[in-house]
Amino acid sequence: MDRKSVMVIGLGRFGSALAKKLVEFEQRVIGVDKVRSRVEEMADVVDIAVQLDSTDPEALIKAGVKECDVAVVTIGENIEASVLTTSILRDLKIPRVIARANNVLHARVLARVGAHRVIFPERDMGQRLAEIIVHPWISDFTALGGKFLIGELPAPKSLCGKTLAELNFSTTYNIIVLLVRRGESFVFPRGSTQLYEGDKLIVAGFPEDVKKFKEFS
After folding, report:
1. CB within 8 A of 141, min separation 6: which ones?
2. Same domain membership, residue 133 and residue 109
3. Distance of CA 86 to CAs 35, 83, 108, Å?
4. DSSP state of 155
5. Which residues neighbour 170 within 8 Å (Cβ) at sequence distance 6 or greater?
6. Using one digit for the tens of pLDDT, what is the confidence trace for 80-130?
C-alpha cells in the first residue's frame, strides 16, 4: 500500500475517527483544528497535530498542506468555514480535496468551489445501518460505489470438487470470484481451480445476487 500524506481539517468525532483509521492504515496524517483541546487529544495519535484557523491559507501552508496528497475537510458545525477552507485548498492546488456536507445545499456549494468529492457521513451511516438491520449478513461486506459488494462467503458443499470453469460463477450466479481462501493461504482463481470443502470465496457482485448465492450456500 502506498503511503499517502493526508491532512484532516476538523478533529471532531468524525474527523478524529477518520484520522485514527488512516493511522491504522499506516498513512502519514496531519490533523488540524481551531480548538486546542481537540488538537491535544490527537497529538499522540497522528504524525503532526496543529492548532490553526483553516481559513488562513498561510497557516495551512506552514502546517504542510502543500506536501499533502489529500486534504479532507471534516468541519461540521461551521458551514462558512467549511466552504472557505475547501476553496482555499483548491486554490493551493491540493491534488485531492474531500469535503463533508451537512445537507444538499451545503454539498452543492462545496462542489461549486471545487471539492473533488463530497461526503455525507450521517446519511451514509444511516443507509448502511438500515441495510444491516434488514440484511445482517451485509455487515461482513464492503460496499463499493454504494451498490456493489465485496466480501467473503464459504464455498457451498454442493460445489466442492468442481472447477471454477465448470461452475461459471459470472453466468450462473452473476457474481465474480476474486480469490479463494484456503486455510491461511490465498489461491488466485483460474478456470482449473477446484473448490474444496472449507474453502472461502472472496466474491464481488450486486447485493441481490450476493444474497441469492448466500441463501444457496
Report:
1. 149, 150, 151, 210
2. no
3. 19, 5, 12
4. P
5. 176
6. 999 999 999 999 999 999 999 998 999 999 999 999 999 888 777 666 556
CA dist., res. 77 & res. 15, Å (int)? 12
Residue 133: pLDDT above 60? Answer: no
What confidence tens digit (pLDDT) does each residue in 32-73 have? 999 999 999 999 999 999 999 999 999 999 999 999 999 999
- Same-domain status, 173 and 77: no
d(CA 164, CA 177): 9
For residue 159, give its domain range: 125-216
In this structure, are 22 and 92 located in the same domain?
A: yes
Q: Are residues 88 and 157 in the same domain?
A: no
Helix (H, G, I), strand (E, B) or coil at 158: helix
> What's the CA gap between 1 and 24, in Å, rounded?
12
Nearest of 212, 199, 189, 211 to residue 160 by alpha carbon:
199
- Residue 204 phi/psi, 5-degree rounding, is -135, 140
Q: Are 150 and 142 in contact (CB under 8 A)?
A: yes
Residues 112 and 11 in one domain: yes
Contact 97/90 with Cβ under 8 angstroms? yes
Contacts of residues 31-36 at CB distance under 8 Å and 24 or more positions apart, as own/partner, are 31/7, 32/7, 32/8, 32/60, 32/63, 33/9, 35/11
